[in-house]
Amino acid sequence: MADEIDREKQRIRGLVRERRAATTEVERAEIRDGITAQLITLVTGRGARSVSCYMPVAGEPDTSAFLAWTREQGIDVLLPAAREDGLLDWIRPSWEGNVRGAFGIPEPLGECLSPLAVGDVDLMLVPACAVDRSGVRLGWGRGFFDRNLGSMDQSPPVFAIVHDEEVFETLPSELHDIPVTGIVTPTRIEYVRTER
Questions:
Q1: What b/e sequence results for 139-169 when a residue is b if at least 16 CB atoms lie within 10 Å of its CB, and e otherwise?
Q2: Residue ranges of domains in the chain, CATH in brackets
Q3: Are strands 130-132 and 167-168 parallel, antiparallel or unpaired?
Q4: Engineered SS bond to 111: which of 17, 36, 92, 122, CB 3.0-4.6 Å?
Q5: Do β-strands 50-52 and 123-127 pair in parallel, antiparallel, or remain unpaired?
Q6: Which of 159, 167, 165 is nearest to 40 (CA)?
Q7: What is the tens place of the pLDDT at every residue in 13-63?
Q8: Which among 103, 19, 15 is positioned nearest to 61, based on CA atoms?
Q9: Residue 158 parent element (H or E)
Q10: pTM, 2 dp
Q11: Other C-beta atoms within 10 Å of 189: how many?
């Protein structure tokens, strides 16, 4: 059964990678603008003054314009830094540049905080490969966010950011897959679970 679930997850990841790679520059700009507008609506609607987010890499939904907006608004931001032990540290960025992280992924310069620091933000905004209508989030297979969420007694509301076509009715899941509160796409915000 586990092998079957893993094969299905890999199949979906392959489809999403292909779709994202085929996206044109014009489409990417439209997606970025839509996601920025939806994230601003979510953050302002909830009155969030602190968020965790991510710097986009490898075709992930682009949060760069949203992050620029958070700076203008004085919103406290934490960004993840992957550790080789499979956990995430959190960085309060100085916005003065980036360094190459443990896996070659750009990470911001700034104050480095523990994996549990993210438990104090008002809202977590996480990348995903896909998400389903019950809150199952499919990542890219390394489990960083699931481990981080699983280590907290109580987490803030968690929203997965994906393209519109990456919202599925159901996705394969395992016990270690931590469900999200909601979904943000370029066209909508969708609550899928009650908050913990």
A1: bbeeebbbbbbeeeeebbbbbbbbbeebbbe
A2: 2-191 (3.40.50.10420)
A3: parallel
A4: 92
A5: parallel
A6: 159
A7: 999 999 999 999 999 999 999 999 999 999 999 999 999 999 888 788 999
A8: 19
A9: strand 158-161
A10: 0.91
A11: 14
